[in-house]
Fold this protein.
Amino acid sequence: MLNFNKHLQLGDIASQAYMSPTAFCRYFKLHTNKTVVSFLNELRIGYAKKLLIENEHSVSDIHYLCGFHNASNFYEQFKRAAGCSPLQFRKRHENKALNAFHQQLK
């Protein structure tokens, strides 16, 4: 969990559990109902959403900070999970925050 944003190799993860990669994948899927890759992508996309909401980093920098080493893969995974692009997600959140602020002023 602490290294989700690092470049991870399945063999390295499995060796931490003293298992072969195949056995680890089977064990992981049995206990989480997710593949290792889908679990890591969920963690990474969740972190990307947090960074997008905080608005401190450019969208182009966020994929590296989340552990995606390929921008196109990041955009594809993000769109699949969130239903929109990272920039659209940021804009929607900014609009929601702005609307909430205006509601407080009324």
